[in-house]
């Protein structure tokens, strides 16, 4: 039986951020790259809690009669993967936590979420298209017109209501650091070497709390490590998936 990998995208993005992973892994395992509710081509309303997003992942598994998956969550997708693992550990074969954190937002972070919520209310995606790429990409990524345009386009496609609800969900999410030393499944931590949003040092410390874990750094990449360096990202993920067996 082949391994089933579910990819969970970040904010304010959609499943197309995983294009290179879908292409590479579909020849090796069953790949499901989800549009979270309210994002991409999803016609659902985005929930305003991380638990709500995790429930949608569970519904997807139930609808497709899937009993065990490797959950690969990027950033907001990582918050969702941890929330899913907290409630449904029996459905998780392994975790891949990409450029993410277990902790909740700081007070300063919550204030910035509120500013972003106001911006989304007033101007839709404009603020995010203008401001997010330089936080998601390295300097080199920003200078690469193909990568920059791709990221801007993905952000521009998302709906204002979904952006607002996801911001509320992230602002109000609980600290899940307590979960880390109880994680029983193999876990791969991946972080772009120049990630300023979820820096490598923080992810490394997170990984040290998880028994059966590996921590890997993606070279020449910031937060969107799978887009900036898909070759290294796929190679590392492939080694991890192979180590899980069938
Ligand atoms: C993401 O990439 O999903 C976001 O940067 C996560 C966040 O804002 O906390």
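^ Assign residues to that structure.
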């Amino acid at each position: 039986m082949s391994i089933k990998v579910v990819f969970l995208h970040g904010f304010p993005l959609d499943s197309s951020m995983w294009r290179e992973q879908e292409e590479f892994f579909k020849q090796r395992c069953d790949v499901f790259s989800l549009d979270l509710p309210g994002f991409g081509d999803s016609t659902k309303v985005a929930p305003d809690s991380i638990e709500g997003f995790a429930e949608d992942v569970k519904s997807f598994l139930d609808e497709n009669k899937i009993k065990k998956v490797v959950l690969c969550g990027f950033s907001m997708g990582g918050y969702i993967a941890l929330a899913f693992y907290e409630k449904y550990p029996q459905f998780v074969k392994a975790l891949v936590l990409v450029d993410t954190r277990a902790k909740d937002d700081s007070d300063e972070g919550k204030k910035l979420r509120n500013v972003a919520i106001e911006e989304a209310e007033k101007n839709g995606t404009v603020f995010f298209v203008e401001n997010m790429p330089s936080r998601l990409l390295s300097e080199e990524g920003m200078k690469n017109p193909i990568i920059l345009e791709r990221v801007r386009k993905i952000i521009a496609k998302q709906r204002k209501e979904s952006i607002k609800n996801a911001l509320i969900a992230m602002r109000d999410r609980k600290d899940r650091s307590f979960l880390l030393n109880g994680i029983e499944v193999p876990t791969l931590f991946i972080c772009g070497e120049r990630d300023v949003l979820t820096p490598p040092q923080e992810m490394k410390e997170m990984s040290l709390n998880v028994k059966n874990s590996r921590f890997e750094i993606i070279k020449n990449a910031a937060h969107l490590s799978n887009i900036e360096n898909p070759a290294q990202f796929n190679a590392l993920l492939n080694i991890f998936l192979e180590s899980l067996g069938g």
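The chain has a mean pLDDT of 98.
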